[in-house]
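Support request, please re-run this one:
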Amino acid sequence: LIIIIMTTIQTKKKTPQSFWTTPIPGLTILTAMALWLIVTTVVPLVFVEQVPNALGLSLLFFNNLNILISACEIALGWNITFVRRDYAAHRRPRYGTARWRGVAAYLTTPLSLSTLGHGETWAVMWSTYALWDPS
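Re-run finished. Output below.
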């Protein structure tokens, strides 16, 4: 038994992670969403002469939030079979009634440059949402 374990450990090679696949420290789904909202709300203010009032800022923030949600809905449309598989195979069996743990696990998923723009990364949002509404 020890020989089998040692052989398995020795033959298991670690694949080196490239610059694109190495998770970026501190970059998770939640921080990526927050960065999107901050950057797309604050950066345009540099190009205006007068800072908008509270209503204007809230509309700008809400518009950028809707753009983010629309991008996630597009990812859902492109990856609907993946979402169904992910929900049935991973989310539902793993979290079941512990819905908030599923949300926390999704929001704290580490991101790399390759997964940041990948549709399946953002489509998982919908299999997590399905913990509440499985339709």
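The longest helix spans residues 54-78. The CA atoms of residues 17 and 132 lie 35 Å apart.
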